[in-house]
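testing teh design pipeline on a random one, pls ignore if ur not involved
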């Protein structure tokens, strides 16, 4: 029977948490009697719609670069996270890229002067990335080979 590899469990949990962050609020802005939220998934949807329109020559604010970092690194981190369940060394890359991904989100929000409206999705994503780093730090157990059972030699024959 195979022994449980804790780093695999941690890598899987970290990836799932990181994956869930795409659905959680990226930005939460209080509006009159309610709070308007935008998730990273909403942002992906808006970018695909904007990509279909002609942009022309526009002045790009610094926050857009942070958004690009987040939008590009998020799917890469999720893919590496799932692959890291089978290859422990990729958990390190997934964790680092995940943290850089959400640093890009913070840079984007600070560039847009909306840092005080940072949504829970960013925090959850950082937690998932940290768990991926922890998964890399967990040492895999050494599989000790079990010696085959050798039957005892027969007793010497009476003389």
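output:
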């Amino acid at each position: 029977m195979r022994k449980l590899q804790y780093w695999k469990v941690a890598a899987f949990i970290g990836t799932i948490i990181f994956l869930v962050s795409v659905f959680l609020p990226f930005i939460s802005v209080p509006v009159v009697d309610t709070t308007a939220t935008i998730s990273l998934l909403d942002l992906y949807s808006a970018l695909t719609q904007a990509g279909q329109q002609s942009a022309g020559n526009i002045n790009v604010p610094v926050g857009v670069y942070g958004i690009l970092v987040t939008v590009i690194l998020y799917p890469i981190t999720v893919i590496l996270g799932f692959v890291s369940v089978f290859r422990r060394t990729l958990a390190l890359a997934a964790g680092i890229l995940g943290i850089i991904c959400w640093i890009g989100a913070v840079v984007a929000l600070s560039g847009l002067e909306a840092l005080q409206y940072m949504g829970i999705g960013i925090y959850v994503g950082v937690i998932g990335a940290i768990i991926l780093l922890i998964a890399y730090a967990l040492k895999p157990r050494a599989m000790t080979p079990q010696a085959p059972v050798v039957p005892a030699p027969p007793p010497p024959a009476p003389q």
